Amino acid sequence: MKNKQFIFGLLLNGLIAQSGSNQIVVEETMFMDAPYVGEITTTNIKYAADGLYREETQMEVGSFFIRMAMGGNQKYGSILDGKKELRTVYNLKEEEYAQENFEGIRNNDGAPTLKGMENSFGRGGGNSNQNNNDSEEDESDDNGGEDESNDNNEVNSGFERTISDNFEEIGGFKATKVTTKMMGNQGPVFIEEWFTTDTTLFKYVSDIKTELVVSYGGENQQSPRSFSEMMLTNQGHEFESIDGRMVKYKMERKDEDDDDGFKMLWQIKSAKKMPFNRSDFELPKDHKKVDKLD
Fold first, then answer.
1. Beta strands 96-101 and 288-289: pairing type?
2. What is the pTM of this model?
């Protein structure tokens, strides 16, 4: 059965890329509510086609003071063009963009010299392979919150974990829910994660981005496929895992008094194959080119 799914995935990947006539568009959302920071909502859209990748994020901050400190709500992104060998970072709010060619990045040991705003807050949904690396710059440490397992004052006393026998539909995908409760002296951490084995569209997007980053000498790294598995592994626990890619997670931490603390919810809203649209990989003509973004 797994061999048939693998062969089907290879065939579908080929059909997606065929003649450059299609593109994949993936939309994700994330909500975070943290002490002293308040509520932050991000919407992330990824576009991938043959030799082209774009990622755009819109961030809305609930707290007036945090929002003002950040200069208001933000909308920003980056474009990788393998045909032109060009990397573009942009700020839609300021209507500005900056560019660098792949050759310049290669001469800088594969590290882009232009810094965008990609790493402001994390995103989930790592690859279905637990040890796979896959992101443009530095998302491996960018999980939208602290690594609970590395808290020096944390004393862990065990965990509870259940895997549902039923499927739920998340963003158009059949997914299996995994619930993990981790106990500690600073209060319990509740993690709910949903995984799908229908990973072909996500793999195509990941492969396109990887191909482009590697072409300028960069190294792709990706957020963990599962935050609960990462934390359990770091704490030396043995646990049951399931195959697939995460399409939704919810993480909540209670304090010692069982009051609400840190909350985070991320999920895939949609992932679709669409006819290729060149304008999805271009910026408006009236945007101003600058040397670098502020």
1. parallel
2. 0.80
Distance (Å, whole) CA 92 – CA 57:
10
pLDDT per residue over 52-111, tens digit each? 999 999 988 887 777 777 677 889 999 999 999 999 999 998 999 999 999 999 999 999
CB 21 within 8 A of CB 262: no
Q: Nearest-CA neighbor of 146 among 269, 238, 221, 234?
A: 234
Secondary structure of 188-241 as H, E, C letters: CEEEEEEEECCCHHHHHHHHHHHHHHHHCCCCCCCCCCCHHHHHHHHCCCCCCC
Please give the distance of CA 168 from its chain centroid, rounded to a whole number: 21
**CA distances to 206, 223, 241 from 129, in Å:** 12, 11, 12
| Domain assignments of the chain as residue spans, ordered by start | 23-289
d(CA 293, CA 272): 31
Tokens of residue 152, six digits: 């020096």
115 CB neighbour count, 10 Å cutoff: 12
Q: Mean of the pLDDT values across residues 121-134?
A: 49
Segment 219-251, tens digit of pLDDT: 877 778 899 999 899 888 899 999 999 999 999
A 10 A CB-CB count for 149 gives: 18
Distance CA 253, CA 259 (A): 9
Identify whether the C-beta of residue 193 lies closer than 8 Å to the C-beta of residue 246. Answer: yes
Measured CA to CA, the distance from residue 67 to residue 63 in angstroms comes to 6
Residue with tokens 């392979």: 129
